[in-house]
Every structure is written in C-alpha cells, then in structure tokens.
Amino acid sequence: MEPNNKKIAIGWFSFSCCEDSTIVFTELMNDHWQEWKHIFDFRHVKVLKTHNIMDAFDIAFIEGAIASPEHVEKLKHIRSISKKLVAIGACAVTGGPSAQRNNFNDEQKANIAFLVERFGALPEVLKVSDVVTVDASVPGCPMNTDIFLKAVTALIAEFRPDLATPPVSN
Ligand code: SF4
Fold first, then answer.
1. Please, what's the largest Cα pairwise distance for the chain?
2. Which residue has the least CA distance to atom 5 on ligand 1?
3. Which segments within 55-109 are labelled E, that is strand?
4. What is the pLDDT of residue 163?
5. DSSP strand E in the chain: where?
6. Taking CA atoms, which of 7, 35, 71, 107 is between 20 and 30 Å from 85?
C-alpha cells in the first residue's frame, strides 16, 4: 500500500454560538502550531485565513447550535463532504446555552415570536446530532481542551498512523 503522506484536511465551522471555542482553538495554536502546520491542511478555517476552500474534509469541527433551516442545509452539506464530524462545545453537543429559548414558557415564547419570525429561525434550536451523524463530541462551555486534544490525537492516529508514534531519535 502507498504511504499516505497527505495532510489531514480540516474545516472549522461556527453556527449559532459565541465562538469562544474558536478562540480556545486559536489559543491552542500557541502550543501546537509548529506540530499542526505539518499535519493539517487548514482548508476552511475562517478565523485563520481569508481564502477558504469548501470541497472535501477529512475532519469537520462544528461549533454552535443549529437555529435555522439554512443552518440545517449547510450542516448536512458539510457532513456529506466530510469523513469525520466532531461536535465542539456544549452548544453543538447539547444545544445549550444557545438553545435556552427552547425552555421558555409560553409567555416568553410569545414575546420573542417576532424575532424568531424576523430571522427565519427554527421553532426549536437543535443540537448537531439532531441533524447529522456525529463521530466525536467535545463538551464544555467553551470546549474542554483536554478532551479536544485527545479527540484530535485519536483522529490523527486514524488518518495518519505514521504520525501517531514519533520515531525515536538516536
Ligand atoms: S458552548 Fe459555550 S462557549 Fe461554546 S458557543 Fe456555546 S455558549 Fe459559547
């Protein structure tokens, strides 16, 4: 079998959320950039670059809850072009805190109905797994960095097993 030396193509996408896990992701670059720049093809990561490519991903990271029909369609499209999909942070994994309007009482729901209509939002906010199959989840608000790094390490081992065990230097 041919050795697989290709970089792992990743996408990072934010839906309805505060994007704090995106900030945490960029903070992790302080420690991991030198390693990750050789491993990952940052194909669609808007926080890092202006020109992003939306064609195919080995791993798609999804932050935020799904709050509109447009979100549903975009998420399904991302799933269709991604080998693995990882839900990032509590809003993606459980819906909340972004989904707190789901728990409003009738009066509160009536008070925000004009906003739901104005923004063409779904009647209820969804978690990522309500819409597509999720391969791994990283809980936390923002995401738990230990669980994120464990998930990333496992995915690197899956896509590039040659990188999982670094060669021992003499
Ligand atoms: S899980 Fe927390 S940090 Fe992440 S988007 Fe939701 S509110 Fe923000």
1. 70
2. 17
3. 57-63, 82-88
4. 82
5. 8-14, 40-45, 57-63, 82-88, 136-138
6. 35
For residue 169, being part of any structural domain is answered with: no
In whole angstroms, what is the distance from residue 17 CA to residue 64 CA? Answer: 5
How many angstroms separate the CA atoms of 57 and 138, rounded?
19
pTM of the model: 0.93
- Is any ligand 1 atom within 6 A of the Cβ of residue 95? no
Quick check: CB of 64 below 6 Å from ligand 1? yes
| Residue segments in the chain with a per-residue pLDDT below the cut of 70 | 1-4, 164-170
> How many domains is the chain built from?
1
The boundaries of the domain holding residue 38 are 8-161
**What does the pLDDT look like over 61-78, one tens digit per residue?**
999 999 999 999 999 999
